[in-house]
Structure formats: structure tokens, C-alpha cells
Specification:
single chain; alpha+beta; 17 strands; 47% helix
């Protein structure tokens, strides 16, 4: 009898121990999506359509996987399903600290901007900092909810079920500003003919979309990364062109136009023979004035966009050299007035193969974005990160002594040298220096760069401090 019981439990334990292995051998992968996020992804008549559907078709072929849709009613339900293991992956979502608790992530394969939408008459907003005391609508479960709660806790939020429903509520005046994805927002505004809604600004951070994998199925990460890295760039461009429906929308004040035409017509009836040509000239002048007004409005919007781009690097999205110099000069002024020190950190990335960047610009951009993301994930909110030039990054640590900045630099070095994309392909050197009395920025930067060269001479992979 004891032998039978022992044999029964041994069989159960053996079956349990073999289960993960069997799961890893199957090619069928269940997944959930946001059912109302067209054109990125959506469920129409029980079928998965959109950008993510086409990417998954490519990935299925490259990774020899079979994807099976698990339908849900909302984005929040999809997140709950993947957390509970009812589906193994979600194909299109951003990383966040909360999601990393129960998900592993592939490399990103699609990037898209987020925008602020408001009713006509709202001025241009400079990101979340320009919203003030207005109420912000955002889809429940989106990464932006976690981002705003952490970095802008003073903003008032209204959770909405989907972007389409949110735009309807915004048009009805139920809140002031909505955060949404550019392509999705533009599509819904045009389909619903919401003429009174306009895009009034960008919302940081932009979407960097990847696969989210339930940690019980983490073996899928390598398969998905393998396939994503082999998707041809031409196919990515084709998919983007197919689904990009962003259109320029012009609006006119027809009340003013009708009133003016009425006055002109009354004048023509009174002086039909004498003023016929005068009326024609007035209509031409009016049309030209309207075109000038439209051009002035467009120019104002372009100038605001140019102001944003002039302070940021167009590849990494980090601050550029000019903005870093400006911020450093402000910190030096603060140091002279209040004697609060500051530290400058310089990072240089050198490929082991000197021809790597020369022959493949796509690899160069991907590496620069990877370094930028690691810097942003490691530094504090008060620190200023910039791509200074080429493969050189500079970080300003305001009101930070050398010892504290050294801890930050060591942590950043560890992140870079252990990253799978950088690894053995790139050498990382870091130099740093603390601001001295009566020192201007060029001298401060020169000492920091000398420390960076010292790190290179010592064989890379170390943090060198300026003397």
C-alpha cells in the first residue's frame, strides 16, 4: 500500500516538473490586445486588425510561432488577463515599473508620439507642465496614468474606457484636456467628425511599444527578440504608410464669411451697375486676408514646434548640446550666489569594431537610443541628460557633491556594460568633475573631458574623476 501511494505522488511530481518544459516546446502563444485602439490594434467582428496584427504575422513566420487571440472587452481587462496568465503576451504596450512586476518585455519595435487634445480655443500647451488646474482625461490602464501620478501628482485625472469614448466626452465638455496616441486620436476625430477638437501639444514620454510577456513564459522573450530584429526595414515602412492617416484639418469662421458676403451683396443690389467691379475686388481681398490669417496661425504653430526641437536631439530625444550649455551656465550662476556645488558626468561610447557605425547607421541609432534610455532610467529627476555630440553624452547633476555623483556614475556604468545590445561590442568610458570656485563652463567641461580620456587610457569600463 505504501509503495502504491509513493508511486502515485512520484508520478504527480514528475508531471509537474515536466510541465514547464512541455509549455516551452509548444508553438501556440495566446495573446490579448486593446480592443479599441485603432489603428494600432483593435478587434473588429472577432478579428484582430491594425498595426500590431501585421507585425505579429511577420513575427509568427520568423519565430515559427502560432498566435491565438483571447478576446477582451477593454484594455484594463487585457492587462488583468495577462497578469493572471489567461493570455501569455500582449503585443503592443510600453514598459513601466508597475508592469515589470508581472511582465517581461521584448525589444521595442514601434514608436509613436502621444498628444494633448482639447476643444477649439485652447492655447498650445507645453506638455503636462502647461496644463495647470485643468482636468486631464486618460484611458484607464495606460502607462501615462502611472507616469503622471509619479511626475505630475498635482494634475487632476479622469479615467476613461477608451480613446474614442474619451474624445466624445471631451467634445461634451466633461473634462478639459485628453491624452492620446497621435494616429488613433486623429482617426477618431475624422471618423466622428469632431470639428471642435484640436491637437494642442505633445505629451511626454512618446510610446515605445514592445511585447509584454507573462513572467511564467519568459522563454518567449528571446524568440520574439530574434524575430523583431529580423523584420526588414522596408516592411516597417510599408506598415506605417498603410496605417498612417494623419491629416491636416483647416477650420474657417463661416459666420464672419457669411456676414461679409451679405453686406457685399446688399451693396451690389444698391449700386448694381456702378459698384460691380468694386464688389469683386472686395471678395478677392477678403479671401487673401483669410489665407494670410491661416498662414500666420500655421507659422505660430511651427515656431512652437521648432522651439521644442531646438532644445532636443532628433535621434535620442535627449536635450542637445546648446540646451546643456544653457542649463550648466544657470547652475554656475546658482553656485556663485548660493555656493551649492554641482557635478558634471561625461560618457563616451566607442565600438570595438571601428567600422560598425560607418557601415550601418541603423545600428548606430539603435545604440544611441539604448544608451539614452539607460541614462534616463538611472538618473534622478533633477539631473539633466544630453547627447553632447556624436557618441558622447553629458549629464549635469545640480546641487550634487562628487561622492553622490560617483555612486550615480558607477550605477550607470554597470547598466551600460551589462546591457545585451552593448555588451562586448562597445567600450564605455566615464569621466566626471565637481564645479570649482570662479570656474566657467568651458573650464569645467575641459576638466571633465580630460577625466574621460583618462578613463579611456585606463582601458575603459571605469569611472575617472578629474583632479
Amino acid at each position: 500500500m505504501l509503495l502504491l501511494v509513493y508511486s502515485f505522488f512520484s508520478t504527480l511530481l514528475l508531471a509537474a516538473s515536466e510541465q514547464p518544459f512541455v509549455s516551452q516546446k509548444t508553438n501556440e502563444v495566446t495573446y490579448c490586445i486593446d480592443p479599441n485602439w485603432a489603428p494600432y490594434e483593435a478587434i473588429r467582428n472577432g478579428i484582430h486588425v491594425g498595426i500590431s496584427a501585421q507585425y505579429m504575422q511577420l513575427i509568427a513566420e520568423l519565430a515559427d510561432l502560432k498566435f491565438k487571440l483571447v478576446p477582451t472587452q477593454s484594455w484594463q481587462e487585457s492587462l488583468e488577463f495577462v497578469q493572471q496568465g489567461k493570455c501569455q503576451v500582449i503585443p503592443m504596450l510600453n514598459t513601466s515599473d508597475y508592469r515589470k512586476q508581472f511582465l517581461d518585455f521584448s525589444v521595442p519595435y514601434f514608436e509613436a508620439p502621444n498628444v494633448l487634445v482639447a476643444r477649439a480655443g485652447m492655447p498650445m500647451l507645453q506638455g503636462y507642465s502647461g496644463i495647470g488646474n485643468r482636468t486631464v482625461g486618460i484611458v484607464q490602464g495606460y502607462r501615462q496614468v502611472e507616469y503622471i501620478s509619479r511626475h505630475y501628482p498635482g494634475l487632476r485625472l479622469k479615467l476613461i474606457p477608451s480613446e474614442e469614448e474619451g474624445l466624445k466626452q471631451l467634445a461634451n465638455g466633461e473634462f478639459d484636456v485628453m491624452v492620446g496616441s497621435l494616429m488613433s486620436v486623429n482617426m477618431h476625430i475624422n471618423n466622428l467628425e469632431l470639428e471642435d477638437l484640436n491637437i494642442v501639444g505633445y505629451a511626454e514620454p512618446f510610446d515605445s511599444l514592445a511585447f509584454g510577456i507573462n513572467k511564467s513564459y519568459s522563454y518567449l522573450v528571446d524568440k520574439l527578440n530574434f524575430a523583431i530584429e529580423r523584420i526588414p526595414e522596408t516592411r516597417k515602412v510599408e506598415i506605417y504608410k498603410q496605417w498612417n492617416n494623419v491629416q491636416i484639418r483647416y477650420s474657417r469662421n463661416y459666420t464672419v464669411m457669411i456676414l461679409t458676403l451679405f453686406i457685399v451683396l446688399m451693396g451690389l443690389l444698391w449700386l448694381i451697375s456702378r459698384n460691380r467691379h468694386v464688389g469683386g475686388y472686395k471678395r478677392i481681398i477678403q479671401q487673401k486676408n483669410e489665407e494670410i490669417s491661416a498662414l500666420q496661425a500655421t507659422l505660430l504653430e511651427k515656431n512652437k514646434t521648432l522651439g521644442f526641437l531646438s532644445a532636443h536631439d532628433n535621434i535620442t530625444g535627449l536635450y542637445n548640446r546648446n540646451h546643456m550649455i544653457q542649463r550648466a551656465e544657470e547652475e554656475i550662476t546658482r553656485f556663485h550666489r548660493f555656493h551649492t556645488t554641482a557635478t558634471l558626468i561625461a560618457i563616451d561610447l566607442t565600438p570595438v569594431d571601428e567600422g560598425l557605425f560607418t557601415h550601418d547607421h541603423a545600428i548606430r541609432e539603435e545604440v544611441l537610443k539604448t544608451v539614452a534610455q539607460n541614462c534616463l532610467n538611472t538618473v534622478r529627476e533633477v539631473d539633466v541628460v544630453s547627447r553632447f555630440n556624436g557618441e558622447q553624452f553629458v549629464i549635469l547633476c545640480p546641487q550634487t557633491q562628487l561622492d553622490s555623483a560617483k555612486i550615480l556614475a558607477d550605477r550607470l556604468l554597470e547598466c551600460l556594460v551589462t546591457h545585451y545590445l552593448l555588451g562586448d561590442k562597445f567600450n564605455v568610458a566615464i569621466g566626471m568633475s565637481e564645479l570649482r570656485d570662479a570656474e566657467e563652463f568651458p573650464d569645467w567641461l575641459e576638466r571633465t573631458i580630460k577625466a574621460l580620456y583618462q578613463s579611456k587610457r585606463q582601458g575603459y569600463g571605469n569611472v575617472s574623476i578629474a583632479q
